[in-house]
């Protein structure tokens, strides 16, 4: 499997209105057999822009969409199930996929409440 992460470059470049370079990167990934795209809602607008590009390319069925959720607040370190659910719903909306291939927990704060949320 070959993939691409979006933390630094996608986050920085997605702030520009011209995302043609990112489009070419994604197209090149798929044209060369790559399938994995790793992102997270905390990477600012990179998840949204990547989703737009994947939808423009019609690549929803080609991409293995891996995202993360921040189940615990960075300020209080307490789990917020509603916020985590909203992050997942945004990932579905951006990716255009009916199934998110991999959802990772981006932090392990508040383990007891996080594990309860993930079981539901």
Describe the structure.
With 120 residues, this protein is of the alpha/beta class. The protein has one domain (3-119): NADP-dependent oxidoreductase domain (TIM Barrel, Alpha-Beta Barrel), CATH 3.20.20. The chain is built from five helices and four strands, in the order βααβαβαβα. It has a four-stranded parallel sheet with strand order 1-2-3-4, covered by helices on one side.
Give a brief outline of the structure.
With 120 residues, this protein is α/β, with parallel strands linked by helices.
Q: What is the name of the CATH class?
A: Alpha Beta
Structural domains: how many: 1
Encode the helix/strand succession as letters. EHHEHEHEH
Count of individual helical segments: 5
As for the CATH topology, it is: TIM Barrel
Looking at the overall shape, the CATH architecture is: Alpha-Beta Barrel
Strand order of the largest sheet: 1-2-3-4
CATH homolog superfamily: NADP-dependent oxidoreductase domain
Q: Spans of 5+ residues with little confidence (pLDDT < 50)?
A: none
Rg is 15 Å
- How far apart are the termini? 30 Å
> Whole-number average pLDDT?
81
Bin the strand percentage.
5-15%
How many strand segments? 4
Q: Which geometry do the CA atoms define? A: globular
